[in-house]
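Example (one chain per record):
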Amino acid sequence: MTRKSIAEGSKAPDFALMATGGKSLRLSELQGRPVVVYFYPKDNTPGCTAEGQDFRDLYPRFRRRRAIILGISRDSLKVHENFKAKHKFPFQLLSDPDEAACKSYNVIKMKNMYGRKVRCIERSTFLIDAEGVVRRVWRKVRVPEHAAEVLAAVAALAKS
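Predicted structure:
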């Protein structure tokens, strides 16, 4: 069974995952502020590191717009803690080892790697407004300039 893609204008699927800092975080408890949820394949890989660093570098500008940033992968909380500390990420990383959120957002895909099929997270970002509605969806994200594009969408959301 293929899961339906998340459509812009639909209610964001809720999730509760363990976050860096050892606390459980539930998406629905963040209503009242825009939330950027970015799914990425794996900590400490070049693309995922660059993506996190780009969100980190623009973080003060996201904060000025009251936006919350959450990064999600299947990595363990321990790996996330080290990754966050190493790169000084000011936002939470969430661990989804059972792929519950990944499945809800339909980001698990089959990919050819070195001649064999593997299940992995397709780099994807979702902008959720203060009411919990998905306003923008980016699939098959290319890292360069992506965080800046998301920031522009957050700014446009604030003006609407």
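Caption: Residues 5 and 106 are 6 Å apart (CA to CA).
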